[in-house]
Design a protein that fits this description.
The protein has helices at residues 13-18, 20-27, 47-57, 80-85, 100-108, 139-148, 150-164, 173-190, 195-219, 236-241, 260-273, 287-296, 318-333, and strands at residues 40-44, 61-65, 91-94, 113-116, 124-125, 165-166, 227-230, 245-248, 277-280, 299-302. It is an alpha/beta fold. The strands form four sheets. The chain has a four-stranded parallel beta sheet with strand order 2-1-3-4, sandwiched between helices. It has a two-stranded antiparallel ribbon with strand order 5-6. Helix 10 links the parallel strand 7 and strand 8 (245-248). Helix 3 crosses helix 8, helix 8 (173-190) packs antiparallel against helix 9 (195-219) and helix 9 (195-219) runs parallel beside helix 13. The longest helix is centred in the middle third of the chain and has 25 residues, at 195-219.
Length: 336
């Protein structure tokens, strides 16, 4: 299928456009056999989907990812050529709402099997709609604008609702296992000749995820505090699963900037709730987290949202990094 991978974020769009062709060429060696192979060709939107496809598909699948390792996936942009080439795959596995460009490309692609992980478990609203980048959700001006553009108001409202749902379901091992089951079923249906192996591989994966869930439940059952600070609000499902409270410096969008009032609020809360650590992540700047930690006299550590695996990751796959995350949480929360 020859999917070329490319990432553009924020103000880098214009600059990246100028070198876009070179970027695509540089990545082509990684994905030159992305389609039309003798295997079941799967295009995955980003690492957590890639991991599922590889674990469940095993030797029967050829998996390529649209998001380059080390790149923050939320603002991924795709070229027209990538969108066209997606149609050569046997299946595409993605998580709707996380990467709008991928959502659009999947909608346009002529792919027989489209697997939206968001339909395989239940997404929840964890109280933030900031994932809709730059969208103004408050004030009378915003309401007036919507009223003035009445023909678009229904669409805008539905977009706002969509982005209010937290997409970071893979950080809850239980929900991730639900998605794995759904992916396995889709693979079995699309490639029935290898259905037995897909089922066997899925059972092995869900067993690993069940063990991971048990480790988290046991490890976080008795702690000095239940509150942890993170760089962005990726850990809502994990917190909910294990009885913790996530306080994010930013919202669901890792690139957003907190207000001075929010920083002061977090400093006060750190004292009140015995918070010891501000967590940051490998794919996003740690500047704000470290500033808050310094001002509030807190430590810093990495809590990886597992949006990609790089040489900075504390583990070489999903399970290993999640185990590292557990150790970091145990230390920060004062696990007994």
């Amino acid at each position: 299928m020859n999917v070329r991978r490319r990432h553009i974020s924020g103000i880098a769009v214009t600059a990246a456009a100028a070198v876009g062709l070179g970027t695509l060429s540089a990545c082509s060696s990684d994905s030159s056999a992305a389609g039309n192979t003798d295997k079941f060709d799967v295009v995955a939107s980003f690492y957590p989907m890639q991991y599922l496809a590889e674990q469940i598909g095993g030797d029967h699948v050829n998996v390529t990812t649209l998001t380059q390792p080390g790149q923050e996936p939320h603002d991924l942009e795709l070229s027209a050529k990538q969108t066209a080439q997606m149609g050569e795959a046997d299946a595409v596995l993605y998580l709707k709402t996380l990467q709008p460009a991928v959502d659009e490309a999947v909608g346009q692609a002529d792919v027989k099997t489209k697997i939206d992980a968001a339909t395989l478990t239940k997404l929840e609203d964890h109280g933030s709609v900031e994932h809709d980048h730059g969208h103004d959700h408050g004030g009378e001006e915003h309401a007036a604008e919507e009223h003035a553009a009445e023909e678009h108001s229904e669409e805008a409202h539905s977009e706002e609702e969509e982005h209010a749902l937290d997409p970071h379901v893979w950080l809850d091992p239980v929900k991730y296992a639900e998605i794995a089951e759904g992916v396995a079923t889709a693979f079995e249906k699309a490639d029935p000749d290898n259905a037995a192996d897909y089922r066997k591989n899925a059972d092995a994966l869900t067993k690993k995820l069940a063990d991971l869930n048990t480790a988290y439940k046991d490890g976080l059952a008795n702690t000095d505090t239940k509150v942890f600070f993170t760089n962005h609000a990726a850990f809502g499902y994990l917190a909910e699963r294990y009885g913790l409270t996530q306080e994010a410096i930013n919202g669901l969008d890792p690139e957003s900037e907190p207000s001075p009032a929010r920083i002061k609020e977090l400093q006060d809360e750190a004292k009140a709730d015995g918070v010891t650590t501000v967590f940051y992540e490998t794919l996003v700047s740690d500047k704000t987290a470290k500033t808050l930690a310094k001002d509030a006299g807190l430590k810093t550590d990495v809590l990886d949202p597992l949006e990609g695996i790089t040489d900075k990751s504390k583990g070489d796959d999903y399970i290993a990094v999640m185990e590292s995350n557990l150790k970091a949480l145990e230390a920060a929360l004062g696990a007994k």
